[in-house]
Amino acid sequence: MIHFAHAPEFGIHRMAVEGLAQAAVHDASLRNMIERSLMESNAKPEVMPSDRVHSFSILSRILMDDQLKAGAACSKDTFVRSMEAPNNVGGIVREYASLWTIKEDENDIQARLEELDWLVALLFGVGGWKKNVPFRAHLYIAHMVTSCLFLPSVMLLLKPAHQIDLMRACFANVLVCFIGEGRPALEVQGFFDSVTTKPTPKGDSDLATKSINGNPWYLILAHVVHYQDEHLVKAVRAPSHSASLYGTRPKGYFGHTELRGAEYIDGTLFIRTAGLLTDAMDWHYEVTKRVEGIDEGNRWCRDGLGWD
Q1: Which of 138, 164, 180 is the endpoint of a domain?
Q2: Rounded CA gap, 135 and 212, in Å?
Q3: Higher-confidence residue: 293 or 89?
Q4: Average pLDDT over residues 188-195
Q5: Contact between 89 and 67 (Cβ < 8 Å)
Q6: Domains contained in the chain, number
Q7: Domain boundary among 154, 180, 206
Q8: Domain for residue 297, yes or no?
Q9: Judging by beta carbons within 10 Å of its beta carbon (0-12, 13-18, 19+), is residue 147 exposed, middle or buried?
Q10: Cα separation, 30 vs 11, whole angstroms
Q11: For residue 188, what are the CA distances in angstroms to 79, 191, 262?
Q12: 128 lies in which domain range?
């Protein structure tokens, strides 16, 4: 979807053809999870919007489900864990995903889009963080962050009913990716108590002093725009956009959800996450060697997150 979405967002039309071609020739790895029944469960919701289940509440239930603990969905040694997980626990994940219904209404669609942005930022940022441990910038979960930024552009091409189908498929994919990578515990309160909202390059005290009263996004984006790994550029672009939309959300905004520590979540989630990512990838990183076009020295984490 990321490849295809470059067409509606940036006008690079040939990438739509390439993206569709990729989809046509690749195996449908989520066939055991995304069935027509998942989409039909949204057709005539029996609950009022006020009673619907928030994505954070669904996440909370997943975190407490022993059927989905690290090692249950797939082995840590599996090459692409998120592709094996649907075969083992696809039915369970599908049941959780079916709780996330969307009304065929513009306001409800936009509200659920916002939820997706918060969810992927939380899974990537808090999911890769532990106190006194280097941040693990997980490459596959980063793709979930990037995908959600492209969703609005793709949805402009679709009718509302099909927009909803795409969003619900994306939500299910995000869940299975997180579960496949080990379903790490989320230390929400610790994250917001510890991670800075003013990230700066380590050892650059002059720059830190000059930037302390400025917009921290300017500093990050000024470094990232020249970065030699396009994955980082895209992964930082997403939370910076989310911050522009939701950065003023206060603590307590998600206090009504079931997720432990949700009352501590506020709009600084995005800058905190982007700062951790930029630190992990090295603000001044330069590629020194490529093997068959691939930079093997990059610092993306590809290991599972929930096994330690």
Answers
A1: 180
A2: 22
A3: 89
A4: 98
A5: yes
A6: 3
A7: 180
A8: no
A9: buried
A10: 29
A11: 29, 5, 7
A12: 28-180
